[in-house]
Amino acid sequence: MCGIVGVIGKAPAAPLLLEALRRLEYRGYDSAGIATLVDGHIERRRAEGKLGNLAGVLERDALPGTTGIGHTRWATHGAPTERNAHPHSTARVSVVHNGIIENHAELRAELEAKGAVFETETDTETFVRLVDDFLRQGHEPQAAFAAALRRVHGAFALAAIFSGHPRLLLAARQGAPLAVGFGEGEMFVGSDALALAPLTRRIAYLKEGDWVAVDGEGARFFDAAHQPAERRVTVTAVSGAAVGKGNYRHFMEKELHEHPAVLGDTLRQYLDPKTLEVRLPRLPFDPARIGRLTISACGSAFLAGMVGRYWIEQLARLPVDADVASEFRYRNPPLADGGAAILISQSGETADNMAALRLLREAGQRVLSVVNVPESSMARESDGALLTVAGPEIGVASTKAFTAQLAVLACLAIGFGRARRELSTLDEGRLAQTLLEVPSHAAAILEQDAQIRELAMEVAKARDVLFLGRGAMYPIALEGALKLKEISYIHAEGYAAGEMKHGPIALIDSDVPVIALCPSGPLFEKTASNLQEAAARGGRVMAFTDAEGEAALRRFAERVIVLPRIGEFATPILYAIPVQLLAYHVAVLKGTDVDQPRNLAKSVTVE
Ligand code: G6P
């Protein structure tokens, strides 16, 4: 993953680079560093750990220079130490890199045979030494950079500065995003428009395989065949305003409390509250004419896709194949001509899902993406995009973006049902009405915070936790387990309630909380029986249900949290909120780094 940024400015570059890195820290926070040109020579400052450590280093040891590059790292090759932190430099060139150079071992051996001495275990250093070798042979920076690019394989973005060239910055994109920002007599490059937004809103995106030579006045683009190319400058809609926590302790807490507004905004986008009709923009495929639909996503977005599968199959009678992108892309899936796919992603940059997108398009599929970042690679490269109106999500664990994805998928399922004549206008109105009740019920759930915090006190003592659900509640059980694992580091598993007796029941004893997602409805009795099986073995059942399910569960459950009653269709959206809130409170009680949990990153741009 990693975030990269570069500046050719009028003022000192270091503070600008640091600010841009703050906005890129969601990509990784193992270490950070910047390099600038000082009197024509490369100088750098680096620090292990979060960006705050680098800021401290710069305070003690300022870095002058108006041209520079910066990096925030999510370690792939080499431990997250200061020595392995970017930028990586020789006396001639300094490089920041996002992604993986796959043939690094082979190149390293070749360069070592020529006498190069490596300082780190990183794949990045191979590129640095390769460029350095071409420079040593007398090539100009541009020729050396281009020659080195021809030798490296993998998915990456790179930016480089060169000794003796105070107004030159070279950057390349191959599988990882890169944007060029145009200022007034200042130029920028960055992993995304968000990083550059406080500096400029005039942005050009590199296309796949492009590289660019930037000076203080402008940029010259080259395509994958190294031919000069034109790339359009657009004005980004991304806000330059800093995203703050407001009065909340953590971004995650703030984002959890944004659920009602985000759900309202997203539903309003695709649902007419007056006519109770779903209004979808023109889709890249006709849902009435497709025989099968593929859904691909990663992490929580995949779990949203699983719920989407239940909804679309039920309402539109359309077979859906939902898979995690990292499996989908390598399993050589048989895809019928004229097929269609939905990709789901908050960032719109996740590497495996981007690869799935390219595979799908090469296989002639029409691809619709559901994304939160309108200018993301996925939104731009898909045949159509539906936006989740969640706003920037900073906490690494997805919260409001997840429920916004569900809201869009719910509207799509209704729209598909209507297009395929499986839903009557009456059904559509009834389902739309149910969805419109979600935001106010979400607000009511957030008011149950104290109750959920009490439950969290019990869960925080556990070593293992089981989440159970049936039907569209099963993916929400998986979401509950995923959230708890990633931010509190407690081992948790989500299971289909009916499947529990085929394995996880062996784990059950009086130390294992069994958290049940059990709204009233057609699957209630079945789930309740599975919970009784757990209780009969000493399991501590803690259930989320509604007023109708309460009495039956109280007979054997240790705790019952009664959530607002809503039509069965919308329960996955609503029940996602308390399980996320539960994970949040457990993490706070355990004292973990809620917004930036260990080893994780928000945008996963390596496969
Ligand atoms: C990371 C994040 C998750 C997210 C997943 C997919 O693992 O920590 O919160 O669900 O990536 O990201 P995407 O941006 O594609 O939704």
Automatic annotation (TrEMBL):
<feature type="active site" description="For Fru-6P isomerization activity">
    <location>
        <position position="602"/>
    </location>
</feature>
<dbReference type="InterPro" id="IPR001347">
    <property type="entry name" value="SIS_dom"/>
</dbReference>
<feature type="active site" description="Nucleophile; for GATase activity">
    <location>
        <position position="2"/>
    </location>
</feature>
<feature type="domain" description="SIS">
    <location>
        <begin position="455"/>
        <end position="597"/>
    </location>
</feature>
<dbReference type="InterPro" id="IPR046348">
    <property type="entry name" value="SIS_dom_sf"/>
</dbReference>
<comment type="subunit">
    <text>Homodimer.</text>
</comment>
<dbReference type="Pfam" id="PF01380">
    <property type="entry name" value="SIS"/>
</dbReference>
<dbReference type="InterPro" id="IPR017932">
    <property type="entry name" value="GATase_2_dom"/>
</dbReference>
<dbReference type="InterPro" id="IPR035466">
    <property type="entry name" value="GlmS/AgaS_SIS"/>
</dbReference>
<feature type="domain" description="SIS">
    <location>
        <begin position="283"/>
        <end position="422"/>
    </location>
</feature>
<keyword id="KW-0677">Repeat</keyword>
<keyword id="KW-0808">Transferase</keyword>
<dbReference type="InterPro" id="IPR005855">
    <property type="entry name" value="GFAT"/>
</dbReference>
<dbReference type="Pfam" id="PF13522">
    <property type="entry name" value="GATase_6"/>
</dbReference>
<keyword id="KW-0963">Cytoplasm</keyword>
<dbReference type="InterPro" id="IPR029055">
    <property type="entry name" value="Ntn_hydrolases_N"/>
</dbReference>
<comment type="function">
    <text>Catalyzes the first step in hexosamine metabolism, converting fructose-6P into glucosamine-6P using glutamine as a nitrogen source.</text>
</comment>
<keyword id="KW-0032">Aminotransferase</keyword>
<protein>
    <recommendedName>
        <fullName>Glutamine--fructose-6-phosphate aminotransferase [isomerizing]</fullName>
        <ecNumber>2.6.1.16</ecNumber>
    </recommendedName>
</protein>
<dbReference type="InterPro" id="IPR047084">
    <property type="entry name" value="GFAT_N"/>
</dbReference>
<keyword id="KW-0315">Glutamine amidotransferase</keyword>
<dbReference type="InterPro" id="IPR035490">
    <property type="entry name" value="GlmS/FrlB_SIS"/>
</dbReference>
<dbReference type="GO" id="GO:0004360">
    <property type="term" value="F:glutamine-fructose-6-phosphate transaminase (isomerizing) activity"/>
</dbReference>
<feature type="domain" description="Glutamine amidotransferase type-2">
    <location>
        <begin position="2"/>
        <end position="217"/>
    </location>
</feature>
